[in-house]
Amino acid sequence: MNIIVPMAGRGSRLRPHxxxxxxxxxxxxxxxxxxxxxxxxxxxxxxxxDNICFVTGRFGEDAERAxxxxxxxxxxxxxxxxxxxxxxxxxxxxxxxxxxxxxxxVAFADTLFRADFTIDPNADGVLFCQRIEDPSxxxxxxxxxxxxxxxxxxxxxxxVGDLAMIGIYAxxxxxxxxxxxxxxxxxxxxxxxxxxxxxxxxxxTQDGLQFIPGEVSEWMDCGNKAVTVDTNSRILQILAEEGRxxxxxxxxxxxxxxxxxPCHIAPDVVLERSVVGPNVTLGPGTVxxxxxxxxxxxxxxxxxxxxxxxxxxxxxxxxWHGTPSDASIGDFCTIGNPHS
Length: 340
Hints:
Blueprint: E1 2-6, E2 27-28, E3 31-32, H1 33-44, E4 51-56, H2 61-73, E5 77-82, H3 89-94, E6 104-107, E7 111-115, E8 125-131, E9 139-143, E10 149-154, E11 163-171, H4 174-186, H5 197-206, E12 211-221, H6 225-241, E13 253-255, E14 258-259, E15 263-265, E16 270-272, E17 275-276, E18 280-282, E19 287-289, E20 292-294, E21 296-298, E22 303-305, E23 308-310, E24 313-314, E25 319-321, E26 328-329, E27 334-335
Parallel strand pairs: 1-4, 1-6, 4-5, 8-12, 13-16, 14-17, 15-18, 16-19, 17-20, 18-21, 19-22, 20-23, 21-24, 22-25, 24-26, 25-27
Antiparallel strand pairs: 2-3, 6-11, 7-12, 8-11, 9-10, 9-11
Helix pairs in contact: 4-5
């Protein structure tokens, strides 16, 4: 089985944290968002994963190397393909056409999910959906009495159903999807100036292929600072419930401090006279002194001193001294006077 991860956008709503790193590589609970996403697919899929193709913008060699390493940590080969123009979801997937062969999972790297990513052997594909109270901002599937998908409606203004597609699709035959996507390009089939996946899905459904909605037990957004901090907290809670939360590493220094679980404490963290947790991630080499930190996401090599932090997201190599508040602080920033 192959996985294709379209992720060419930079994530402008998550700025300033995406000014120095692409959004899918922003860490949540100690791992990049995209690694959390792909890890869950690999963990629940019954078929082994051979290749993971990341469809990106021109993010640079460091980002590309990090993505390939994500795939390798999960026992697959990592590949980079580029989407140089924002021409829609169908075009993004087709940029990874080398891996549209056999069973394939397409996972857009915008949000995190809890689901069983097995492809039903009686269906040609599974489109993972979530029931949404107001689906007017989403693509929605329409089903018949037996639960088979019969149509796809983009951002419906009238009620057609509440099953919103959330960006993960499992296909039995990637080659067939490849041909349908290429058909859209060849015949210039666009919606709003872009090539859209639902048009290919509709064509395949009309040709008799059977797609069914897949159940998502939980859907966690990483679209802006507030929801990303909430997602970090929820992932930590899930890891603790499942016994998969990493212990505090031996290289961490905890001096006259208390850690309230669940927390992710990375290697070489220093805690002095502080209370950390619950629901806190501290990146590698971060130092926390004389502070209270809860419900927060802090990247590596950052210093927090004499602060009360709740609900904050703090970038790498930042320095925050003596100003208690909720904040969103980018990489390399300094707040307050460290010598006062």
